Amino acid sequence: MNRPLLNADHYYIVLDRYRLDVSIGIHEFERAKPQPVTVSIAVAFRRRKEYQDRISEVIDYDFLRAEIAALVHDRHINLQETLCEAVLAICRKGGARGAIVRSEKTNVYPDAHSVGCEMSWFDEGVLFGS
Length: 130
What we know:
Layout: E1 10-24, H1 28-32, E2 35-46, H2 61-72, E3 76-77, H3 80-93, E4 98-105, E5 115-122
Helix pairs in contact: 2-3
């Protein structure tokens, strides 16, 4: 996942290729059983002037994993776009200033690693040069 440069007072945390089995897709055969999906996230936060080295000062990766797992549990999602929008909403709950989300269905075509969707959102002033 390519990430745009952030202004110096921001940084990313990254959850890369989180693997889940998800009921996703528009075809009947996709509704029959969950399929492997990876979700990658780069979440932008404002840097603090000083850190006390406590998890309470930053977002916990466990929060992201648990929220995404809960999102897809016992639910069918038709489109990867819907999944990406919902994951962006999770990032907003965690106090992020921006995020990039990528979902990939990894078992669709034998001649392709994956098919996917990537979305992003950034508050004004987060990206370098803005």
